[in-house]
Amino acid sequence: MSRHKYKRLKHQITWLPSRWYFCLSLAITILLGWVGVAAAQDSNTNNFTNLSTIWLLVSSFLVFFMNAGFAMLEAGLCRRRNATNVLAKNLIVFCISALAFWLVGFGLMFGDGITYSCVPGENTSLSLVGQKGLFFNLPFPQFGNLGFPESGFNCLNKDWSNHSFAALFLFQLVFAGTAATIVSGAVAERVKFWAFLLFSFFLVGFIYPLTGHWVWGHYGWLAKALKFQDFAGSTVVHSVGGMAGLVGAWLLKPRQGRFGYNLRTDRYEGLETEKFSSDNLGLATLGCLILWLGWFGFNGGSAKDLDYVANTITITMMAAAAGGISSVFFSPIILGKPSLASIINGILGGLVGITASAAFVDIRSAFIIGSISGIFVLLGEYFLQVWKIDDPVGSVPVHLFCGFWGTIALGIFSSNSSLLYSELDVYDDPLLQVLCQFLGWLIIIIVTALLSLVGWLLVSLILYYASQINERISGKQRHRKQFRETQYFQLGEFILTIFEISRRGIRVSLEEEISGSDGVFYNP
User: Fold this and answer.
1) Where are the domains of the chain?
2) Which of 180, 243, 172, 184 is nearest to 444 (CA)?
3) Residue 187 burial (CB < 10 Å; 0-12/13-18/19+)?
4) How far is 296 from 69, CA to CA, in rounded Å?
5) Each residue's pLDDT tens digit in the chain (524 positions)?
6) Of the CATH numbers 3.40.50.2300, 3.40.50.300, 3.40.50.720, 1.10.3430.10, which one belongs to the domain with range 46-461?
7) Residue 470 CA to chain centroid, in angstroms?
């Protein structure tokens, strides 16, 4: 082959990928245009429109991709030796969340009740929990009507008309998985893999759908009785996940050496004995950007009308930017010299703060909400240090503290000039709405805290006594601290003993914590 022909062939090969990209982009454009025409011509086919379903699916993909952001963020902010365990937890949590939400969670959260199914002339009493589609009975149409099933989810169909049932299930599933992923960061570097796995099932299968039904269920009692509102989950997703993580972090106690904590003696002994620095801030920054992108699907997908999507995403963008700037300005006052981790959490805090009201506020209000969210993140980090609660990633300040602020901010800043204000069932008096927002948030947080404590204790006791039985069978019993026995029953001693056993059940041993693995995975 001549040199001239070789150069020509090389030039053609170089431009081939670009031509393919152009053709692919053109094909997608034509397809979307055809879908829009088809939807306009036959919008009632199977009771859902194709364009709305496509956007809901795209939003689901974006929210699902947030799991990669959480994994990178946690792996970047934790120490290198824990990378395998951290990534494994973030990978498997969506697997267990999908199963839990399919088996029980979706039915409890969105299924019709026994006394109502949103048909005319029936009882419309307030609802505590859905009761349809539980335990392998979630009805997915296969060959006929691809919209909603004929019964069991009439209320959900009324709230999300013109949407595919399967697409809506996927969208709500990735929301539920996000709540479980939040917990991972708060208990990082010291929780047992199986403990986190079992608790995630309990959270997504029972706690999250129960409290979520009160707000997002058609007759949810908090939404109807208190007019409590939460557009995309500042309370339902983020505060619930943050509170579950806080309970877990409190029960586990700090990592060895953090705040001077000594796992051997179970006491705080002086200052920190080890450097707890982030391993890879570049990875954490990339995780933040992925989460930022995914949030456009998180909030944008929650808009039931496509006309409102662009405005919702723009509002979300502004709040995130304001949160990052605010964390830079106020960090010297609250925590000292600003750090990259604080900027990352400030951006994420702004996103959490705007999630409750992204469709109900204007862009100036979004800037204020995001700015104050950045301050709440810094205050949360400060108070956790004072309380000696170890949160390696900052999950609790970002999701619980900013989730609280975002919930309250809806009552303060919701504007009658916003796109969806006419659909917002709130009080005319902003002060009264703020009070109801606070009461609703407080109720959900208290219930979440109690159920999370029960969940962590049950999981820990199961794992503790399972390990005891396994050690007796194998003949490899470890030397364990003996609990003090008294002649008379003492409630205080009994409670302390339960918590001590529970901590051992869900926390890795000191040797495993130092090595960075709890023995489940090979740690290179």
Assistant:
1) 46-461
2) 243
3) buried
4) 14
5) 555 544 444 444 444 344 444 444 444 444 444 434 333 333 333 445 778 889 999 999 999 999 999 999 999 999 888 888 899 999 999 999 999 999 999 989 998 876 666 766 555 667 777 776 566 667 665 545 567 777 778 888 888 887 888 889 999 999 999 999 999 999 999 999 999 999 999 999 999 999 999 999 888 899 989 999 999 999 999 999 999 999 999 999 999 888 888 888 888 887 776 777 777 899 999 999 999 999 999 999 999 888 889 999 999 999 999 999 999 999 999 988 888 999 999 999 999 999 999 999 999 999 999 999 999 999 999 999 999 999 999 999 999 999 999 999 999 998 776 666 566 778 888 899 999 999 999 999 999 999 999 999 999 988 888 877 877 777 665 555 555 555 455 777 778 778 787 788 899 888 888 877 656 665 55
6) 1.10.3430.10
7) 34
Q: What phi and psi, each to the nearest 5 degrees, are found at residue 214?
A: -65, -25
Count of other CB atoms within 10 angstroms of residue 289: 14
Q: How far is CA 417 from the centre of its chain?
A: 30
User: Which pTM was predicted?
Assistant: 0.85
Q: Which two tokens stand for residue 119?
A: 């048909």
Residue 323 one-letter amino acid: G
**Kind plus residue range of the DSSP H or E element containing 352:** helix 340-355
Q: How far apart are CA 197 and CA 177, in angstroms?
A: 12
Instruction: Report the distance separating Cα 255 and Cα 178, nearest Å.
Output: 24
Is there a contact between 354 and 369 (Cβ–Cβ < 8 Å)?
yes
The gap from C-alpha 82 to its chain's centroid, in whole angstroms, comes to 22
